[in-house]
Design goal:
single chain; mainly alpha; transmembrane helix; membrane; 2 strands; two-stranded antiparallel ribbon; PG_lysyltransferase; cell membrane; transmembrane
Length: 543
């Protein structure tokens, strides 16, 4: 018997999207803080700080990030061992890496991570409830690691909390009390041997051996992630690893509470406020930019290429039975992964157009001005359209797949035409190659505008557009605004190009919002929108 759900009421819709508006308001507050603390710095100052980061630091940070992601795969492995449902490690590692690669970038880890895990674990016999328990175990392990890091730091270096004005003696007492609570959790399995009942489902309390591994795993993972940030900062004796670890932990907590995707803005503001008393703000921002590239963007692109590679291998006639089985299990998650990659690529194009160009190649002169203007404008338009199309890609719409390929090619070409900026062209180019062989996954026909943004995509879109606009305002804050600026066309008129592109981006975003509202109002109230199954709803459908 098919399971039907009543359409949401206006009150429920207001609550869902009202929460999104609240999250965007928190982001706005974080951006105000960033602007205030960076008031005396410019983009040129941040670029100078970036130039002081050595290649050895980048290699060490990349290695630490790789080990951190390997530890994240052990989260899932430990969760499956706790449930007594062992799976081959290679499959667990593939699933865990993919889920973390873009839940880190888009946020909503408990939702996105659970969806990816269900897509990839279900073919191996795990039910929706078991996947939900794996997700709960993983989130708990992460929170335990977060709760373990601070007490350890307080005991090793009580002065590390000086940014919070906590006396060393009080920090030591707080650390001892927190460790006592964690020890109680670790040994709680000796007494809580009967499963706990939560919403009618039995959830077993971790055995002591599992609980201790949770604490150690979470501690090591967060320590390595903080090490990545520490290695990304320009060399300085004023900030220690303990200082960065405390700032990193506080920023993670703030990012989780705010629910802003990827903690964008909120995470950065907390790190900036925590470290600037000892380090210049431009150095901190440079480290944060490199950290997000290494720990967020690079894994996301790799995950997209992995899924695109599976689709490319499946398209070959010489494919074997084992590869077909792997592809059959991976294919359901391809649209979700590629949607995340397309969204981040769109944001990447917007961010790159919001900052001034460092230099243009020597052959570029006044005759190349129309080419530069066109490439900047088309790159911004392609970026916002990719962001708006990402949710339709997740829904497997063929039209969204075609348009995304065109826009990715446009973004790549615009980067090359504005002066051969091949580093910027790499990201849309790689996602284009990952999306191209996945044609068979996008078989649905329909109107893109008849699929309104869900609250999570609405929030992510708002965060990306607001952050790009703030970045542009910050980049050109030292330029006096005037009416003539709108009609200023020169090779180095980056501020004018940003203003004109921002108007286009705003008009496109507003037009898309109005089109979605009109489409939603004109639909039959009884018409049900087909949604991608979550881990629990999908389980009900298969019963």
């Amino acid at each position: 018997m098919a399971h039907t759900e009543s359409p949401p009421t206006w009150t429920q819709r207001l609550l869902r999207y009202g929460t999104g508006v609240l999250i965007l308001a928190l982001l706005a507050g974080a951006l105000v803080i960033l602007n205030r603390w960076l008031e005396q710095y410019s983009v040129a100052d941040i670029r100078q700080a970036l130039n002081r980061i050595t290649g050895v630091q980048l290699l060490a940070a990349s290695a630490a990030a790789a080990v951190s992601y390997w530890l994240l795969t052990l989260y899932d492995l430990l969760a499956l061992r706790h449930l007594r449902r062992p799976l081959p490690y290679r499959w667990v590692a593939f699933t865990a890496f993919t889920s973390y690669a873009f839940s880190h970038s888009l946020g909503f880890a408990s939702i996105i991570g659970a969806t990816v895990r269900y897509r990839l674990y279900a073919p191996h016999g795990l039910s929706g409830v078991e996947v939900a328990q794996v997700t709960l175990f993983v989130v708990t392990t992460f929170m335990l690691g977060l709760a373990t890091v601070m007490p350890v730091v307080m005991l090793i270096d009580p002065t590390a909390l000086k940014a919070l004005h906590v006396p060393p003696a009080s920090a030591t007492l707080l650390g001892l009390a927190a460790l006592a609570i964690l020890v109680a959790y670790a040994v709680g399995g000796f007494w809580l041997r009967r499963p706990l009942r939560v919403f009618g489902h039995a959830i077993a309390f971790p055995r002591p051996s599992i609980a201790v591994r949770q604490l150690l795993l979470g501690l090591c993972d967060l320590s390595l992630a903080a090490l990545v940030l520490y290695l990304c900062l320009p060399p300085s004796d004023a900030v220690s690893y303990a200082d960065v670890l405390v700032a990193f932990g506080l920023a993670l907590v703030a990012g989780i509470i705010s629910h802003v995707p990827g903690g964008l803005g909120v995470f950065d503001a907390i790190v900036l406020v925590s470290l600037t008393p000892a380090m210049p703000g431009n150095d901190v921002m440079a480290g944060l930019l490199v950290f997000r590239l290494i720990y967020y963007l690079a894994p996301l692109v790799i995950a997209g290429l992995m899924f695109g590679g599976v689709e490319a291998f499946q398209a070959r006639r010489r494919i074997g039975g084992l590869s077909r089985g792997i592809s059959a299990a991976v294919s359901p998650a391809v649209p979700l992964v590629l949607a995340a990659c397309i969204f981040i690529t769109g944001a990447f194009l917007l961010f790159s157009r919001a900052t001034p160009e460092e230099t243009l190649p020597a052959p570029f002169d006044a005759t190349a001005l129309p080419l530069v203007e066109m490439s900047h404008f088309t790159g911004s338009v392609a970026g916002v359209l990719l962001i708006l199309l990402a949710h339709a890609v997740q829904r497997r719409l063929h039209a969204a797949w075609v348009l995304s390929l065109i826009l990715l090619a446009t973004g790549c070409a615009s980067a090359l035409l504005k002066g051969g900026d091949w580093p910027e062209a790499i990201v849309p180019g790689l996602i284009f190659l990952a999306l191209l062989p996945a044609r068979k996954e996008f078989h649905r026909r329909g109107n893109i505008l008849r699929n309104p943004l869900t609250p999570s995509w609405f929030i992510a879109t708002g965060v990306a557009l607001a952050s790009a606009f703030w970045l542009g305002l910050f980049s050109y804050k030292h330029i006096a605004f005037s009416d003539e600026l709108w009609w200023h066309f020169t090779l180095h008129g980056d501020a004018s190009r940003f203003l004109r592109a921002s108007v286009a981006v705003g008009v496109i975003a507003l037009g898309a919002a109005l089109a979605h509202l009109v489409s939603a109002a004109s639909r039959d109230p009884e018409e049900r929108e087909e949604k991608p199954p979550g881990p629990l709803t999908a389980a009900r459908r298969t019963d």
